[in-house]
Amino acid sequence: MNAFRAVLFDFDNTLVNYTLAEKEALTATLRHFGIIRDERDWDAFFACYEPVSSDHWRKRDGRAPRDMTLMTFRDTLERFLGRSDVAEQITDMYWDRFCNTCHLEPGARELLSHLSGRYRLGLVTNGYAEAQRKRLAACGIGGLFQAVVISDEVGLRKPDPRMFDLALRQLDASPDEALYVGDSIQDDYRGARNAGLAFCYYNPGRKPLEPDVSPDFVVDSLERLKAVLSGIR
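^ thats the sequence. predicted structure below, dont judge the formating
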């Protein structure tokens, strides 16, 4: 197998723990406004929030991030409290906290530092540009990438192969010279396959794979990716 010249990454739940950042920002905001007091309140709130958030996320096309976040909180608070009078204040505080919160996945910073200079590095991520750019800055890793492609900025979404094509063009690499690392079968695996890239499935939870899914590599920690790449070179 040819040596890779470029390594591309997904962002959320690959390099950073999105779930933890979301919960931390939500919990701090909701406690500030007296909406929740303890973990039991959190569980009850999240049972209302998660389906509302998922539904608005699926229908987000054309919506600004603040608008979608505001609608999510309005609908959730109506379900949880029967009122939504503080939805705007909660939206502003939550969005600021979330965009400036960083929880890197274990070994992410060390891995990127190790790969920097050895490979051209790229980031291909779905999401709102404001959040992704600010979170990259908060994590202090943005400067390590020679290509950053965000769905909100280019009007495309993984698994569309054009997302990967844009990154490869910036990295001056062909598909057979690049490896993509991600945690999502639908967005990352299928996107990499659509674009002709080798794919490494980041699977810390060791989830079983469907019979028709066959990543080139599987790692349960980012540290293991070093060994994968060393073996190829």
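The first strand starts at residue 6 and ends at 9.
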